[in-house]
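sorry for the late reply, my laptop died twice this morning and i had to redo everyting from scratch. anyway the thing you sent over, i finally got around to it. pasting the sequence first so we're on the same page, its 518 residues, then the predicted structure underneath. double check i copied it right bc i was rushing
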Amino acid sequence: MKVAIVVQRYGADVNGGAELHARYIAEHLKRHVEVEVLTTCARDYITWRNELPEGVESVHGVPVRRFPVARERDPREFGRHSERVFTAAHSLNDELAWLDAEGPASPALVAYIRQQAAAFDFFIFFSFRYYHAFHGARAVADKAILVPTAERDEALGLGLFAPVFRGVRAIMYNSFEERALIQQVSGNHAVPGVVVGVGSEVPSRTDPERFRQRHGMYDRFAVYVGRIDENKGCAELFTFFQTYARMEPDGLSLVLIGHPVIPIPDHPRIRHLGFVSDEDKFDAIAAADLLVMPSYFESLSMVALEAWALGKPVLANGRCDVLKGQSIRSNAGLYYTGIEEFVEALRTLGDQRGLAAALGANGREYFRRHYAWPVIERSYTDMLDRLTRDAGAARPGMEPWPGWWARRRRTLPPAREVVQQLPAGPVLKTERDRGRPSRPRPQSRGTDRRGPERRGPSSPRDRQPKAAVPPAREASADRTRPKPANPAPAHRDRPRPDGRPPQRGGRRRRPGPGGRRP
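ok and here's the structure:
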């Protein structure tokens, strides 16, 4: 069996989320089938400039065939097209113009896919929103497997993608939340699909002390790993952390690993290390008390999985359905939806080391059960075998293009409104949980055991941290957050970050520096 991995960029030094995901899958899938990667000559995801040579090369033993990008991206042109399709009624042609402007537009790559369709049994396309995945999947729909890497952003509401979600042979989802979003927006329930995610090349041994000595980091700290960008929630993270630092003068520091796109505050407890080696990254996570994930939009957080693989808890942005759902299902992290909850959760994880260790142990088991490479590889090979067996079965196929006039009628709604109308919240029940024996648990007064499978965003203010229990069950979100064995009222006796006095009840903490509460 020969399989093509089709992705917008590819290389040993290309570390974008979807691109790294594609490389990991290619390198592990080659143990089972013949693999060839089809990609562009671009290295930079902003400009899509052709920087790598056209033709075939080998990357970690995988043949990689590169095709030129027709033109670089013009950010102003792309911004104009985005404003039109995201905020106003528009036409299918407007959406196609947006797709071309986003890039990387490589007609040569799509032409090769069409011409060489018979040479491959299947094409695995990464990232639904890009030119290569849209046009490539339409060109070989009966052999197309899609890894959408979809987030809850406006692009998901564009009308041109729903037929692709319905027309491919199969979809490999990153998370249950991603699957729920795509099924809601496209109605593709009949398309074979599995939630599989991706593993990671986590080393068998790390050396926290090596990291501390190399960087002179001897204080306890939380670590952030990734692009330091407002779109990743980092600006809000800086505001929240500086409030925490004022309230907890002896608390955790914050270590940042990654390329900065926004200014980093000049703060004695914020340390930026820049881009580091994989060895250094894993040593840093192992040395940290916890990983913080402030992003609002993720289809799957690979660095959160890496932290759990190393037995570290995660503090996640609860406004990201995927991160919130993973935290609940794994019982390996806390989440926040505002500054008060961030401060209290970070304080809890810093002060209660037993709780943090229990959450980390849950995370390690969650990773082993669902994201170890044998599990991931088996999910892909099982899907390939299933599609091969069902090769002669009847299926709808890709819907044809609308006519000339239909493509030009401005009857499509603003994509932003489409996404805003989609159900929100984490998926609390999954097929992984069904059939697993549940353990008796005390029911909190006022808690309804019969919660729906998918709930809207809610605040964890009434769900104080609980004693960590074995991972992921079908309970409601209100009862899957870990609590300490002797819980204290987390919000009643703490000074509030916005300057308001504590709620009645509980002891008052001493004022912050200077006699004033932050």
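The two ends are 63 Å apart (CA to CA).
thats about all i looked at so far, will dig more tmrw
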